[in-house]
Amino acid sequence: MQKKIWHKVAEEISLQVSLGKWPVGSIIPGEIELAKQFNVSRDTMRKALAYLSQQGLFERKAHVGTRVKARTRTGRFLNEYNDIRGIDHYGNLYPRHIQNVERLVLNEETADRLGLIPGEEVIRFKNIRVASERHPEAVVVTYVYIYPNALEVLDLIKKRSDDLIITLAEEVTGQECVEVKQAFSATTMPKEVSDIFHVPENSPSLRIIRNYYDSRGLSIVASESFHMAERFSFWVRSVKRS
């Protein structure tokens, strides 16, 4: 289902707050000015701001304005996902830049970290998602590992920028992804990643390692993503069965 315009605007505003465009405690521009900036109607902007206020991001007061209450929403996410395709949706909301394509042979340390086989030849590249083309701050930095039989994926990425990499890899290799394994861990950023985020080396971050498997248990794509610690959260709801 296609998102409503106010929904997309709310996501963009939420991201800009998390990136520090408007500090906590500051008053953001009024509805009319923001509507002009985002090229939407005032009614659309009002709906977006009302939703984000309900989420705990803003506090709105008559004759005062809309004040930033927190850098991240305290309510539920704008989107919930319950299938394989939904897992990557967070990053896929933002423009993608591909960098540093290289062939390499997996050493034991990298293979063990990613759940792959040492000595295998892979193609690695950086997939950098940015807030928008107007605001090119990095949102997530991902190292993607594909096998040589999926090399055509790199050409398809340029033509189909909205498609997930796993979708393109399935198409090229003929393998179907039936399982995704994810490992979440708190870590520090290596210098190469911290330079992209423009933060000090060893800054705290959330690392997500993903492996996409076919029905035979063979890896199609593996990835290692780094998120700024305060920009991403993950929650699980458990219900006791009687």
At a glance:
This protein is 29% helix and 28% strand. By secondary structure, the protein is α+β, with helices and mostly antiparallel strands.
Set out the fold topology.
Layout: H1 5-18, H2 31-38, H3 42-54, E1 58-61, E2 65-68, H4 89-92, E3 96-105, H5 108-114, E4 121-130, E5 138-146, H6 153-159, H7 165-173, E6 179-188, H8 191-197, E7 204-213, E8 219-228
Antiparallel strand pairs: 1-2, 3-4, 4-5, 5-8, 6-7, 7-8
Written description of the protein model:
The chain is α+β, with helices and mostly antiparallel strands and 242 residues long. Strand 4 and strand 5 (138-146) form a beta hairpin. The chain is elongated. The chain has helices at 5-18, 31-38, 42-54, 89-92, 108-114, 153-159, 165-173, 191-197; strands spanning 58-61, 65-68, 96-105, 121-130, 138-146, 179-188, 204-213, 219-228. The protein has 2 domains: 5-68, Winged helix-like DNA-binding domain superfamily/Winged helix DNA-binding domain (Arc Repressor Mutant, subunit A, Orthogonal Bundle); 84-231, Chorismate lyase (3-Layer(aba) Sandwich), CATH 3.40.1410.10. It is built from 8 helices and 8 strands, in the order αααββαβαββααβαββ. Helix content is 29%, strand content 28%. Helix 2 crosses helix 3 (42-54). The strands form 2 sheets. The protein has a 6-stranded antiparallel sheet with strand order 3-4-5-8-7-6. Strands 1-2 form a two-stranded antiparallel ribbon.
